[in-house]
Design a protein that fits this description.
By secondary structure, the protein is mainly α. The chain is built from 15 helices and six strands. Bound molecules: arginine.
Length: 442
């Protein structure tokens, strides 16, 4: 029996079949629920333009609903030799399934699936990032009075605080969230109806599928809609890479600050691993793996660029390979965000770091500023303190008073949280989820 949608009278070579299907049986499972939702919108629209009878539409919708249920229940897979999710779903629908593909190509179908998948996954990442943001802000408030050394060139520099340290990573996530919002907006346009990339002679109602699927708008130009494959994934991967960049820096700081030579922070032993030879070891492997995983994620925009680089307009099978680097990225980043959140909740800080005299010189600028406030010109004060240090005559005043916005004594966590909320309210999750929910009940 033919298991290809396009199979006519030539038998397919097994080795070529293996090579061209590649990892699609695995990758397309990520797309499965979205392929069904997209087909529900397409079938609903086809009935309104007379390409399906009402009875045929209803039969298709109920078949699609059943498949959706199987996917949700984990009772669905793509059969051996079936090319992809699009073929599997169509073949499961039986005879009426043969009418579903009018005015559609797998090219716009996979584009649509990817957009729906991407919206769903960005939503998960956004919620996870917000949860981590809240944890970091809470820790920042909790430890706002605990000082630590700040470094430049990894040389002790000036007083910093755990309030600043935790709060800095929260604010970094604010900027990452901004990129996630932009990426979401790029993904949230409907490519369905672009068909193979040049539209269709059927009078498709693209406005209708756009509304049914809760999209912001469509990708109007059918040629551009196809050019969005690869471009959308790259943009989204860039936003995810930005989150990953925040996490890998946090992970490196944490590894360093928990080492004995710093001793600034302590990990709950349950987050550490032991050594097979050194009985005393409690290693921060979780942070190290986070660092490496997040560094790898930061390479994904580049991987995608290299896959699609210099392709002319129009569909190419090259695009299939993007799925292999793109789809697993979301589970990886979600795992990392979740781990970092648990660790940041558990981590405890050393309240007395600065009682060690090796950090005394971080107060040198405080002393210069104190003399300057008393009327000595800054450059003279700088020189005096410098000479005192050289002569071993410097005594630090450890009471510090930083008041300006974003400084140790005035973290502005509330302002940062307000900015975060203003970004969050711009994600149209409610509209999108309501549209998909309604379609699934139709
Ligand atoms: N597996 C294919 C992909 O991901 C689906 C589209 C196939 N289209 C085609 N013209 N061969 O790109």
């Amino acid at each position: 029996m033919a298991n290809k949608l396009w199979q006519k009278n030539i038998t397919v070579d097994k080795d070529i079949e293996r090579y061209t299907i590649g990892k699609d049986a695995e990758m397309d499972m990520y797309l499965a629920p979205f392929d069904v939702i997209g087909s529900m919108a397409h079938a609903t629209m086809l009935e309104t333009i007379g390409l399906l009878t009402t009875a045929e539409r209803d039969e298709l919708l109920s078949g699609l609903r059943k498949i959706y249920g199987q996917i949700e229940a984990g009772e669905f897979s793509i059969a051996e030799g079936v090319e992809d999710i699009h073929s599997e779903v169509e073949m499961r629908l039986g005879d009426v399934g043969k009418k579903l593909h009018s005015g559609r190509s797998r090219n716009d179908q996979v584009l649509l699936d990817l957009k729906l998948f991407t919206r769903y996954k960005i939503q998960e990442v956004v919620l996870a990032v917000k949860a981590l943001f809240d944890t970091l802000q809470a820790q920042s408030e909790r430890y706002k009075n605990v000082l630590m050394p700040g470094y430049t060139h990894l040389q002790i520099a000036m007083p910093s605080s755990f309030g600043l340290w935790f709060g800095a990573y929260a604010e970094s996530l604010l900027d990452d969230m901004q990129l996630l919002l932009s990426a979401y907006k790029v993904a949230n346009r409907n490519p369905l109806g672009s068909a193979a990339g040049y539209g269709s002679s059927f009078p498709l109602n693209r406005t209708m599928t756009t509304q049914l699927l809760g999209f912001d708008s469509m990708n109007y130009n059918v040629v551009y809609a196809q050019m969005g494959r690869g471009k959308t994934e790259r943009i989204v991967a860039q936003a995810v890479a930005s989150v990953a960049g925040t996490l890998s820096k946090l992970a490196f700081d944490s590894c360093m600050f928990t080492s004995q030579n710093f001793g600034f922070m302590k990990l709950d032993p349950k987050f550490t691993t032991g050594s097979s030879i050194m009985p005393h070891k409690k290693n921060p492997d979780v942070f190290e793996l986070t660092r490496a995983k997040c560094n790898r994620i930061q390479g994904i925009p580049n991987d995608i660029t290299l896959i699609v680089n210099n392709l002319p307009s129009g569909y190419f099978r090259d695009l299939q390979i993007i799925k292999e680097v793109y789809m697993p990225m979301f589970d990886e980043i979600l795992d990392c965000i979740g781990m970092v959140k648990s660790m940041m909740e558990q981590i405890t800080v050393n309240e007395n770091i600065l009682s060690d005299s090796k950090y005394d010189y971080i107060f040198s600028v405080e002393e210069v500023n104190r003399l300057t406030t008393e009327g000595m010109p800054f450059r003279d004060a700088y020189r005096k303190v410098g000479l005192d240090i050289e002569a071993g005559k410097f005594t630090p005043h450890k009471e510090i008073n930083h008041t300006h916005e974003g400084s140790i004594g005035n973290l502005c966590n509330k302002e940062i949280a307000a900015l975060m909320n203003s970004v969050l309210t711009q994600f149209p999750f409610d509209k999108v989820n309501a549209a998909e929910g309604k379609l699934l009940k139709s």
